[in-house]
Amino acid sequence: MEFITDLLQYMSNNSSMLISLTIEHIVMVIQAIGLALIVGIPLGILAAKVEKLAPVILSLVNILQLIPSLAMLAILLLYFGLGNETVVIGLFFYSLLPIVRNTYVGIKEVDPGVSEAGKGIGMTQLQLLLKVQFPLSIPFLMAGLRVAFVIAVAVATIAPYIGGGGLGREIVGGINAQNDIRLIAGAVPAALLALLADFILGIVEKRTKRRFRSVS
């Protein structure tokens, strides 16, 4: 009970600093997810449309996911130096797999009959993709985005090891100082961020699934 009291007191006394670190954490994650969406969606579509490229693209993003996070950031540090920019690049790589894979699966899962109907009314391949196939694949994309967001929030906590910021500063600082209160003061907001992202994106995913079923 005394530990919880001390933890709450510490978080209250350092609330402005913790809020600042939380915002920094969120910004890094959003930047990385934004980049992953910009790159990952076209790659997923390309994999779905060009079958010969699918194994290559999916294998590459799988390999990125398999590299341990500290090793990934250490490699990036050699080329991009210390700072949040390097962290964002690392989070971007880790976010690619769920977005690419789910975009690919979403496009492939579209009912061929729906695609044939689009062709029957004179749609071009591009119109078919933009107006039929991609919109119907959004529930799958949202599931991938949900996973990517949670992964990015978690991996971002080790950002201080390469000079980055965010809530990891408190976590790593607590580890180095053997201070459990600092460690948990950083871990609790990070965990809450991951849970909140999972909850909100889960709701969006369920709504898009209902729309998908109604269209199907």
UniProtKB/TrEMBL annotation:
The chain crosses the membrane at residues 26-48, 60-80, 86-104, 140-163, 183-204. The keyword Ribonucleoprotein does not apply. GO terms for cellular component: plasma membrane. It is a multi-pass membrane protein. Its main location: membrane. Keywords: Amino-acid transport, Membrane, Transmembrane, Transmembrane helix, Transport. One of its GO terms (biological process) is amino acid transport. InterPro entries: ABC_transp_perm/SBD (IPR051204), MetI-like (IPR000515), MetI-like_sf (IPR035906). It is found in: Cell membrane. Residues 22-205 form the ABC transmembrane type-1 domain. Gene3D superfamilies: MetI-like. PROSITE patterns: ABC_TM1. Signal peptide: none annotated. Pfam families: BPD_transp_1. CDD domains: TM_PBP2. SUPFAM superfamilies: MetI-like. Belongs to the binding-protein-dependent transport system permease family. CysTW subfamily. This is ABC transmembrane type-1 domain-containing protein. The lineage of its organism: Bacteria, Bacillati, Bacillota, Bacilli, Bacillales.
